[in-house]
Amino acid sequence: MLTPDMIALVKGTAPVLKTHGEALTRHFYARMFQHNPELKHVFNQGHQHVGQQQQALAAAVAAYAENIEDPGVLMPVVERIVHKHVSLGIRPEHYAIVGKHLLASIREVLGEAASDELIEAWAAAYGQLADLLIAEEARLYSKVSSQPGGWSGWRAFRIDEKVQESAEITSFYLAPCDGGEVPAYQPGQYVSVRIYVPQLDLMQPRQYTASDRPGHGRLRISVKREAGGGDAPAGQVSNLLHDQYKVGDVLDVAPPVGDFHLSAESGRPVVLLSGGVGLTPMISMLNHLIEKNDERQIRFIHGCRNGQVHAMKDHVNGIATTHPNVRKAVFYEHIGPQDKVGQDYDYEGRVDLEAIREQAILPEADYFLCGPMPFMQAQYHSLKALGVPVERIHAEVFGTGGLGA
Fold it and tell me: How far apart are alpha carbons 276 and 198 in whole angstroms?
């Protein structure tokens, strides 16, 4: 149990963790993978390579230390982590391994500053957090496995169909190899897909949004080829899926989860804002609303580089043409010779909500954001500047960071 003295010790490390947390988490991951290499199969090694997981964990540890007296403040982040853990098959036994290496890393990185009292305090704090996560994950595992068609862990799915949606994005239609049902997931949720990566000699998981409405008896994921460049490595899983996986091949798939999804019961207008491959949850939400003959006002606002990378254009155009309650606004950063205004795109440049505020800003609407982090941050701040309450802005953020930066 955390005593007041322990709380003070943990909270006192928050400034140090904000400054040096990434060094600690880098040491932690290196130590854990050295002693427990089997966990390399669980963690995205691409994110490890560029430091994304180290940065996310450092931010989470610092935030927990800062709010140790009232961890309930972090419940939105906890909920996101719980969904991610369930999608990866994290189990209670993993927490003992992580705790062992985290405490050892604190001692090894902080050196003399890591007194026995501090380690004891962090052990109690970690135990409190682990108990919370384990309990929440148990509830979610039970929920996703007990519904019709639900399951826990990994399930074999066969590629039924493979469709190129743009120069970068390909859709994979996945059917259960066992012939069973697919659960009625929430529009906007994601699945984890796991394949063997020969370069690493590891199984590797990745999260992809279910890019169509529920109820088809199969799943669709739409995967962007990550070519890499600069500091970003090429997408090891996405490139394998594009280049080597074909109709009839089998993938491991985890059940649909995620705290970013449409609330169909609200009845409020919906504004769907996406950049690049971030349109996948928006297509799922749009298709669900159309299939339900929902008559609320719907705005589909999308930005991409050019017509070559614009996925599912004809599908959205068809819906906007045949449904008076749906209006679209598409922005291209660069106009190609084949791109036609009003048909392929509506505006040149990056998404500018101020320029289309009469169309984009609807009374009492819910706003959904998905895309690259700079895109989401820009749109988040634009929405706030245009008077949209923060509680009406919903974003798909993988990791522990927020949009307020």
Answer: 28
> Does 61 appear as a known binding residue?
no
* Listed residue (404, 402, 398, 401) closest to 192, CA to CA: 398
Residue 224 to residue 232: CA distance in whole angstroms: 14
- Map out the domains of the chain with their CATH numbers: 4-146 (1.10.490.10), 155-253 (2.40.30.10), 270-395 (3.40.50.80)
Cα–Cα nearest to 184, from 216, 209, 136, 160: 216
Secondary structure (3-state) at 343: coil
Check 22, 136, 137, 165 and give the catalytic one: 137
Give the integer Cα–Cα distance in Å for 193 and 255: 10
209 is in an annotated binding site: no
Partners of residue 108 on adjacent β-strands:
none
Residue 400 scores a pLDDT above 50: no
Catalytic residue chosen out of the listed positions 29, 64, 95, 126? 95
List the structure tokens of 394.
Answer: 């919903």
Q: Is the pTM of this model over 0.85?
A: yes
